[in-house]
Amino acid sequence: MTNRINDLKRAVRSSFCTPVNRLLNRIDPPVLVLLYHRVTALPSDPELLAVTPDNFRAQLRYLKERYPVLRFEEEWEQQAKPAVVITFDDGYADNLLEALPILEELELPATFFITTGLIGTSQEFWWHELERMLLNESPLPPRFTLEDGRYGQSWPAGSREERAEFYGGIVRLMNDSDSSQRESWLNQIRHWATHQERSDDMHRAMTPDELRLLASSRWVTIGAHTVSHSRLSALSLEAQREEIFASKRQLEVWLGREISTFSYPFGRRADYTRESSGLCREAGFTKVAANFPGQAHRWSDPYQIPRHLVRDWPVETFASKLKGFWTR
Fold it and tell me: What are the phi and psi torsion angles at 143 (to 5°)?
């Protein structure tokens, strides 16, 4: 019932917003900002973050044939017709190894927003560790109980369906937590699942040298994406400040240049606050990317630029989705 109500709400919002956006797009040529995370082929991708290299190349060819492709950090006010911007979040190694060669082949610019805390470490993003522990075929104890005075609860973990529900539930909790709380919960799951270290680097972030190599491309701009990829609205003001300012400082140390752009982790309107935007302005960022549908216009808030998430769509589906993106 809840899903039906949410679907109805989205349909009502869409029916209202579409004609309004069409009118605004006639008044001012829009800029559509696209959000990618990974370009690679994965055996499992429950978060739907990866686009295969073949689909990515086809999507970019489609864009290049039809639209100006701008840089995120540029001034867009003088753009005479609808245009597109390509962005990436997080800082996976495949951004360099698989996405960059395609961008350079097609001579298209992209901005990569980097979570600095994982760069050069053996860690992986916490959602991949959860996937490996909970969604594999290895035997697990029949139930997990999260020991936490406020968020404690229990999930069965016997069947594949129960594990998938457990995974979804704990991901939702971790999305709303800070890095220390997440690590505490992960340690409980590791102990419960007799977790073993991963045997591959499929989900690794870049090393500092790889990041510098990515940044050396004339088609690449580097932006910040916090230190620990925590939901800013779940943090205190001082913790937000540290996440925002420290990620900028670290990138500037590694790359020896000013970092002027940022993207909010997760990026929905509920994932950051007015204070978050103020801190980004204070840190010296000139543009900040969010993650909710919309088009950028000359009157858009530069500290809440909408983006559309791109999935692993064949080019026909991509073309169809893109038509909706212009008015959604």
Answer: -155, 145
Burial class of 8 by CB neighbour count within 10 A (0 to 12, 13 to 18, 19+):
exposed
CB atoms closer than 10 angstroms to residue 7 = 10
Between the CA of residue 56 and those of 84, 136, 267, 286, 312, what are the distances in Å?
15, 28, 22, 28, 8
| Most trustworthy range by pLDDT among 9-18, 23-32, 44-53 | 44-53
Is the pTM higher than 0.70? The answer reads yes
| Residue 66 CB neighbours (<10 A) | 12
Q: What are phi and psi of 310, to 5 degrees?
A: -105, 135
CATH 3.20.20.370 in the chain: give the residue spans.
18-121+203-325
Angle of helix 179-193 relative to helix 160-175, nearest 10 degrees, comes to 160
- Give Cα separations from 135 to 11, 45, 123, 158, 255 (angstroms): 33, 11, 19, 11, 37
DSSP state of 206: P
Alpha-carbon 325 to chain mean position: 17
The string of pLDDT tens digits covering residues 30-75 is 999 999 999 999 999 999 999 999 999 999 999 999 999 999 999 9
Residue 219 DSSP label: T
Structure tokens at 104: 């350079």
Where do the DSSP E strands lie in 56-117? 69-70, 83-90, 110-114
CATH number (3.30.70.1130, 3.60.20.10, 3.20.20.370, 3.30.300.20) of 18-121+203-325 reads: 3.20.20.370
User: What is the tens place of the pLDDT at every residue in 168-191?
Assistant: 999 999 988 888 999 999 999 999
